[in-house]
Recover the amino acids of this structure.
C-alpha cells in the first residue's frame, strides 16, 4: 500500500512537470498528446505495481495457509479467518506454539495476534493453562503484560483470574515493581488493592465534600487569611508602641502596651491555626478520621492560647504579664514545629492529588494509543510513557513516605510527641514532598513530548478527553496532600 501511494505521488509530480517540459516545443495539440502519453505510461506502471503487490500478498497468504494445514480443521478455520497481517504473525510461530494458539477461542486468538511478533512468540511459549488465562485479557492489558520478561510473565499467569485482572490494571511502573516480588508477597500486595473505574483524578479523592461546604471552607480560609494579616499588622504596631513606652520609661504605658502586645501575639497565632484548620477541612485527600483528629488537636491548641490571652487581659501587674508572656512563648516554641507539621500534611494532600492525575492520565494515554491503532496509526511513545509512569510512581512513593513520618508523630498526639520528634518529622516530610513535586514536574515535561508525538501522528487524537478508565488503588491508603503555604514562616517572623 505504501509503495502504491509512493508511485501515485511520483505520477502526480511527473504530470505537473509536463507543461514545462513541452512549453517551448510547439502547439497545444503536441503538448496534450505528450501529456496523454505520460499519463497512460504512469497509469500502466501503477496498475502493474498494484497487480504485483496483490500477487505477492496472495502468494504470502497461500504460504501462510499452507503452514497452518498441520492443524485440525476446526482449529485451522479460526486461524484462516484472521486478516493477512495477523495470519502472517501467527502462521510463523513454531508448530507447538501455533497449535496452542489455535485451540483458543476466536476472540482470544485475535487479541494475541494483535501483538507484535516478539511478544506473541513469548506468550505463545507459555504453558497451555497460563496461555488460556492471559489471553482472556483485553488487548490493552495483554500488551502491557506482554512486555514483561518471560519468568515474570509466568509468575503473573500462575495467579487466579481475578488477580491477573488486577495486575493488568496497574500502571507500568507499579506492574514492574510487583512483578519483581515473590509470589507470596505479590499476592499479599494485590489483596490490598482494589480496582475502580474513574473518569478523572477527582474520583480518587479520599473524601467527597459537598460543593457548598467546599465553597464555605474556602471563603472562610480567605477571611481568616485577611484577619491574620490584620493581626500581624496590629502586632507590629503593638510592638512599636511597647518599645516607645520603654524608651520613655513610662511604666504605666509599658504595662498596658505589654499586655496589648501579648494579646495581639495570641490573636496572630490563633488566626494562623484557624487558617491551617480550614485547609485541613477542605482537603479531599485527607480521610475523615485523620481530618477529625488534626482539627481536634488544633482546637485544643487554640483553646490553650485563648486561655493565655484571657489571663493576660486580666493581669494587673508587670509580673502577671511576664508570666503570661512566658507561657505564650513556650506555647509558640512548641507550636511552631507542630504548625509546620500540619502545613506539610496539607502539602501532602495536594501532592496526592497531582499523583492521582498522573495515574489517570497514563490510562488515558493508553486509550488514545489504542484508538490510534484501530485507525492503523502506530505511535512510538512506549519508552516515554514508561518514563512518565516511573516518575509518577516515584512521586507517589515519596509522598507516602512523607505521610508515614507525619502520621507517626500525629498518632503520638501533639502533647506526647517531643519537640525534636515534631521538628524532625516536619523537616523530613518537607524534603520528601519536594522530591515528589520535582518528580511530578519531570513527568510533566515527559508528557509534553508524548502529546507532541501523538498529535504529529494523529492530529485528531483527543488526549485530554474524559473517558472511563480502570485504576488500582490501595484500599487502606489514607494519604493526603495540598498546596504549601507561607503561613508558618509568616507567623514565625511575626512572633520573633
Amino acid at each position: 500500500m505504501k509503495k502504491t501511494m509512493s508511485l501515485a505521488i511520483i505520477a502526480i509530480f511527473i504530470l505537473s512537470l509536463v507543461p514545462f517540459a513541452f512549453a517551448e516545443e510547439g502547439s497545444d495539440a503536441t503538448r496534450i498528446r505528450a501529456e496523454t502519453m505520460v499519463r497512460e505510461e504512469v497509469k500502466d506502471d501503477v496498475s502493474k505495481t498494484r497487480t504485483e503487490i496483490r500477487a505477492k500478498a496472495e502468494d504470502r497468504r497461500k504460504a501462510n495457509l499452507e503452514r497452518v494445514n498441520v492443524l485440525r480443521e476446526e482449529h485451522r478455520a479460526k486461524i484462516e479467518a484472521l486478516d493477512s497481517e495477523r495470519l502472517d504473525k501467527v502462521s510463523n510461530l513454531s508448530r507447538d506454539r501455533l497449535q496452542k494458539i489455535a485451540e483458543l477461542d476466536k476472540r482470544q486468538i485475535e487479541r494475541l495476534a494483535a501483538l507484535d511478533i516478539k511478544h506473541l512468540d513469548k506468550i505463545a511459549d507459555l504453558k497451555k493453562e497460563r496461555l488460556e488465562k492471559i489471553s482472556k485479557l483485553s488487548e490493552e492489558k495483554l500488551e502491557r503484560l506482554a512486555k514483561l520478561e518471560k519468568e515474570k510473565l509466568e509468575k503473573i499467569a500462575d495467579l487466579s483470574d481475578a488477580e491477573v485482572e488486577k495486575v493488568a490494571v496497574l500502571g507500568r511502573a507499579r506492574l514492574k515493581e510487583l512483578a519483581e516480588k515473590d509470589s507470596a508477597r505479590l499476592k499479599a500486595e494485590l489483596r490490598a488493592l482494589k480496582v475502580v473505574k474513574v473518569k478523572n483524578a477527582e474520583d480518587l479523592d479520599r473524601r467527597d465534600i459537598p460543593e457548598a461546604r467546599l465553597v464555605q471552607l474556602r471563603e472562610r480560609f480567605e477571611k481568616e487569611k485577611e484577619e491574620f494579616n490584620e493581626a500581624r499588622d496590629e502586632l507590629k504596631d503593638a510592638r512599636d508602641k511597647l518599645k516607645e513606652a520603654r524608651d520613655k520609661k513610662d511604666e504605666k504605658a509599658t504595662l498596658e502596651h505589654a499586655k496589648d502586645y501579648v494579646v495581639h501575639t495570641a490573636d496572630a497565632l490563633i488566626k494562623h491555626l484557624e487558617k491551617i484548620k480550614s485547609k485541613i477541612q477542605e482537603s479531599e485527600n485527607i480521610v475523615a478520621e485523620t481530618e477529625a483528629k488534626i482539627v481536634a488537636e488544633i482546637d485544643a491548641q487554640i483553646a490553650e492560647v485563648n486561655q493565655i490571652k484571657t489571663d493576660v487581659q486580666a493581669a494587673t501587674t508587670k509580673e502577671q504579664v511576664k508570666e503570661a508572656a512566658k507561657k505564650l512563648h513556650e506555647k509558640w516554641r512548641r507550636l511552631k514545629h507542630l504548625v509546620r507539621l500540619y502545613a506539610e500534611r496539607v502539602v501532602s494532600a495536594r501532592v496526592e492529588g497531582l499523583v492521582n492525575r498522573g495515574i489517570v492520565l497514563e490510562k488515558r494515554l493508553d486509550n488514545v494509543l489504542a484508538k490510534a491503532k484501530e485507525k492503523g496509526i502506530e505511535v512510538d511513545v512506549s519508552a516515554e510513557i514508561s518514563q512518565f509512569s516511573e516518575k509518577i510512581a516515584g512521586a507517589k512513593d515519596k509522598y507516602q513516605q512523607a505521610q508515614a513520618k507525619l502520621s507517626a508523630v500525629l498518632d503520638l498526639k501533639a502533647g506526647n510527641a517531643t519537640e525534636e520528634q515534631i521538628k524532625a518529622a516536619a523537616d523530613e516530610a518537607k524534603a520528601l514532598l519536594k522530591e515528589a513535586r520535582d518528580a511530578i514536574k519531570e513527568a510533566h515535561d515527559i508528557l509534553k513530548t508524548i502529546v507532541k508525538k501523538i498529535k504529529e501522528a494523529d492530529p485528531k487524537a483527543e488526549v485530554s478527553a474524559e473517558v472511563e478508565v480502570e485504576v488500582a488503588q490501595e484500599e487502606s491508603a489514607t494519604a493526603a496532600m495540598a498546596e504549601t503555604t507561607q503561613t508558618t514562616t509568616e507567623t514565625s517572623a511575626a512572633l520573633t
Observations:
- Strands lie at 193-198, 469-474.
- The longest strand covers residues 193-198.
